[in-house]
């Protein structure tokens, strides 16, 4: 892409997008900023502090001497991200809103809006990089393995990657903060955002209970012993330890409790003791809704590595096509807390090939659970 190209940077108010804009301007691009408002809350709390973030984005734009546009994508976000996540939670699965937001909002609604403003490309503060040639673009890991965000970007296809610039590909987070300080950005030491945007720092269960009815039920062991009560299966995820309130069982001292399964038919939450209990371990998984960066994906079994979560250490295994668009992944070593509804993302060395939505987990031999979501 020519350095004279018109690039619109998604300025979020954070330090990563700020430095991305600064780098592109230093490299000779014609740079403008766009602040996206993706969530509108009904209460007066400031968990998603859009106005504070907009003020930070404004300070960065003023320091750089670039225009700052503003767009409200809250309606699209609610319809295409939030409502989908609610359906998944109600079904007992664990969705990843950040992945869906990148697919539907940041690299669709934002990209379309930027093109209407005359942009040739868009840029964000994601830690990732684009390689390859036009029509055969690749999504590559960032140099900083700790910050690499390709897990969240695996749904991007050739159209999106052709129009995307990730200026932070070769930088570490400390280096980004130093550059922001040198550039005079007031947000150079702003803490990283944590949690899901529409929940923020709030209590997860407390927020979801505004949209999902509580359906209390029994907390049981795989053997059928009742050890407590839950508030609703939608509020728990596999591998969860906190919030179970199962302490103090004289007959079951010792190791902490973890969520091992959900029985949606009987409304029972199944728990086990011990971080590495066999019921928490899986030899593999079956996933559907695959998206491949090259638009096709492998037609035969391949040797690959996979991530089950952001910052999850890559796990080697074999990926095999099945029928109806599903694929089976068998790990070299059993993996803990494979959660239906989450994404499994596939890599070949430094390249992110794509990923799918976990549908079924394949328990280790002797596990007391079935693995069916």
Name its key features.
about 375 residues; Rossmann fold; alpha/beta; Elongation Factor Tu (Ef-tu), domain 3; SH3 type barrels; globular; six-stranded antiparallel barrel
Description:
It holds the Pfam family tRNA_Me_trans. Belongs to the MnmA/TRMU family. The structure is a single chain. This protein is α/β, with parallel strands linked by helices and 373 residues long. Helix content is 23%, strand content 29%. The protein is built from seven helices and 17 strands. β5 (129-133) and β6 (136-140) form a beta hairpin.
Brief summary of the model shown:
Helices cover 23% and strands 29% of the residues. The chain has helices spanning 15-26, 50-64, 74-90, 97-116, 158-162, 173-183, 204-208, and strands spanning 6-10, 30-37, 68-72, 121-123, 129-133, 136-140, 164-165, 217-220, 226-230, 257-263, 268-273, 281-292, 302-307, 315-321, 327-336, 343-348, 351-363.
Task: List the topology elements.
Elements lengths: L5 E5 L4 H12 L3 E8 L12 H15 L3 E5 L1 H17 L6 H20 L4 E3 L5 E5 L2 E5 L17 H5 L1 E2 L7 H11 L20 H5 L8 E4 L5 E5 L26 E7 L4 E6 L7 E12 L9 E6 L7 E7 L5 E10 L6 E6 L2 E13 L10
Parallel strand pairs: 1-2, 1-4, 2-3, 4-7, 8-11
Antiparallel strand pairs: 5-6, 6-17, 8-9, 10-11, 12-15, 12-17, 13-14, 13-16, 14-15, 16-17
């Amino acid at each position: 892409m020519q350095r004279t190209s018109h690039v619109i940077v998604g300025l979020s108010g954070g330090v990563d997008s700020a430095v991305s804009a600064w780098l592109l301007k230093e490299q000779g691009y014609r740079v403008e900023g766009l602040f996206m408002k993706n969530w509108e809350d009904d209460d007066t709390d400031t968990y998603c502090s859009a106005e504070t973030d907009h003020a930070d984005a404004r300070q960065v734009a003023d320091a750089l001497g670039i225009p700052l546009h503003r767009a409200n994508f809250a309606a699209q976000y609610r319809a295409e991200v939030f409502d989908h996540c609610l359906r998944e939670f109600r079904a007992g699965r664990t969705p990843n809103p950040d992945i869906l937001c990148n697919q539907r909002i940041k690299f669709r609604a934002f990209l379309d809006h930027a093109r209407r403003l005359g942009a040739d490309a868009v840029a964000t503060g994601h830690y990732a990089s684009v390689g390859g040639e036009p029509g055969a673009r690749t999504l590559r890991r960032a140099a900083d393995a700790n910050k690499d965000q390709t897990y969240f970007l695996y749904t991007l296809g050739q159209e999106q990657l052709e129009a995307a610039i990730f200026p932070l590909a070769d930088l570490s987070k400390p280096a980004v903060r130093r550059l922001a300080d040198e550039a005079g950005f007031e947000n150079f030491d702003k803490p990283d955002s944590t949690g899901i945007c529409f929940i923020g720092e709030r209590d997860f269960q407390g927020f979801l209970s505004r949209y999902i009815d509580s359906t209390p039920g029994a907390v049981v062991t795989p053997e059928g012993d009742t050890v407590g009560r839950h508030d609703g299966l939608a509020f728990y995820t596999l591998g969860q330890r906190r919030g179970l309130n199962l302490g103090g069982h004289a007959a079951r001292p010792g190791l902490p409790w973890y969520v091992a399964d959900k029985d949606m038919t009987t409304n029972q939450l199944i728990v086990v003791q011990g971080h590495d209990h066999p019921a928490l371990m899986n030899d593999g998984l079956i996933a559907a809704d695959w998206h491949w960066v090259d638009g096709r994906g492998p037609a035969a079994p391949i040797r690959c590595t996979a991530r089950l979560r952001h910052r999850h250490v890559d796990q080697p295994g074999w990926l095999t096509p099945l029928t109806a668009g599903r694929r089976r992944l068998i790990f070299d070593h059993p993996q803990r807390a494979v959660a239906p509804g989450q994404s499994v993302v596939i890599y070949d060395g430094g390249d992110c090939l794509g990923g799918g939505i976990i549908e079924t987990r394949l328990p280790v031999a002797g596990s007391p659970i079935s693995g069916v979501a």
